Amino acid sequence: VLRFAQLQLSGFQYRKYLGDLNPRGLQETPEPYDPAFRVTTVSVEENGPGTKNAGQIPYVVPPGYQRDRDITTLNNAELNEQALNLSVTDLRDGDARAAFKNVNLDLLQYKGLTMSVHMDNLSDESGTTGAFIRLGTDFTQNYYEIALKNLKATKRGSFNVREPDPEVIWPTENKFDFSLDDLRRLKANRNRQELAGAAPYSEDSEDGRFTYTVVGNPDFSAVQILMLGVRNPKTGDEQTKSFNVWFNEFHASGFDQTSGKAAIARADIKLADFANLSLTGAFKTYGYGGVQTRISERERANSLEFGLASSIALDKLLPDKWGLRIPVYVSYDRRTVKPNFNPLDPDMPLDLSLSSINDEGRRRNYRKMVEENQTRKSINFSNVRKIRLDPAAKARFYDVENFSATYAFSDALRTSVLLDEYRQISHRGGITYSFTRAPRYWEPFKNSKTFEKPVWALLKDFNLSLLPSSVSFQGFMDRSFIKTQLRNADPNTSTFPPTHTTQGVPAQFEKYWLFNRNYAAVWNLSQSLTLNYVAASQAIVDEPYGEVNSQAKRDSVWRSLTNFGRTKNFDQRIGTTWQLPLQKTPFFDWLTAQAVYNVGVNFQANSLGIRDTLGQAFGNVIRNSRERALVGRIDFVALYNKIAGLRWVNSPRPPRRDIARSPGDFEEVERQPSQFVKTLARVLLTVRGINYNYSIQEHTIMPGFLPF
Questions:
Q1: Per-residue pLDDT tens for 532-555?
Q2: Which of 625, 587, 605 lies closest to 706, judged by CA?
Q3: pTM of the model
């Protein structure tokens, strides 16, 4: 589908508005015509008194304003001052023309707006034409309009052309000077009558000079368009009008000077060795800001937050002879933000919006809906255990000291204007068992005199351990539940103030329940042979979608839990290491070697939601692995020392004896090889040792495995 839209280049200069400015409705569509609408500028330097383009009505600075000066120049020159000029010729009765500008303004903290306007026509006729200003987020569906009904014309010849009076050129009757609170009250009155927001709603100002109109839900905190226009009001004479209108600068007058407050408090309390307590609190009120903070950046809400955190040693309340260790951590945090302005109607004070709601119950629910609340609470029991009071006592595999437990709970709840409920609940807990004993070996030939000779060392040192050295197990559960319930605009109403509801917006759930188990065992079968076993199982406890709020759902969860969940990944490995007894043989004691043999199996379950083109499950994946390795070292130094002819190469030089002897005595001295020969021999025997590692690794993978 190809739709045509009106193309307008974005910028910050005024441009002609080419759309329809007539009220929306069932009135007759007017025939197109050309009122010779022009958008130009008039300025002091181009149209001021004494210039060639001054004409009969020269341009002057409006009363109460002074031209800016360029202080960077030597003569302090005055800058040019100008205004927007809109001129029409034969504008039809009831028709309007306008120029617009894209802006990005936040006027929420300001009190009013002012603008000087000039009008002239060839007939010097007053009270027959009007001007208007539109502020909002778009041109036709969300805007405020301030209309000046009867413009006063500046008559030619009624002033000195060379020194015109600014009060005559810019009559006070033509000045826009209105309060933003008047526009807010206008919207509140419209909302109180529960009228459709798309239809224009108008009221006259108290002095009758202006007509205020609101359409849709405009927002002073995000003004995106500024429109200046002229209008030929609808009258019975149906006469066309030709006139010029000058719009001067747009000024904001006054701002909200409400002073805010802020404070932060913290207290840390230590209760001996029983507990540590931390208390924190902070608040900010509407209008708070630093000296460097802009008006638009000041606080626009009243916020209060406080928290409590404590670490407690509960075992201090129990007798020491029990030997318990129960560390507990508790925390609670709460934050409340009460906006001063309605988040669904950002330029309306919340109290003013609530005054538009007639029903007390609806008003109370509306206030609760727009507030932001956050609550967090948690409690943790970390490594709860019983310690061994007598370190010299014999450790047994059934001792309660071998067990420890951990549990953590947290609950977070958040609500806001767009979030009906965001709740995150987490349960984490686990039990750990760990038993370690010093290995005891059975050595039947250790004290036998039959095997005293070195040749029988291998048999003499035979040993065997009948029990594992260490056994450990860990079971850990992690359950998370997240519920997100968003709000949407209420489809059953088009009135204001706008409200949000959960109707038609299903809640979203994100949750999982993991059940992980780890096993480990080490068995020193002998002093040279070690057996290791490691296994890890990762399982999921399947839960029905949504909240578990029925007996059928609870039964489904319980069945999955009693089966230890649905295994997603299982990994099991067994490894053996044998230290070859080469050191116990006199001919091979210069060699060391370890024989390694490892096997493993891995099971990875498929995803339940993935199917092939035929609708069949992809199946599981099984992997097997095996590793055989020989690791060791060849010590050539020890080998050289076994050869008598090479032993002297690695032997240190004997110390020189300093003994006095009598003349004529004889002494036998062993002649040592020269240092040069010894160094040369060491160079030839440079290789001192070799580390070697020989391994064979084999893997098998079988995808698509389906159980029978």
A1: 999 999 999 999 988 888 888 889
A2: 605
A3: 0.77
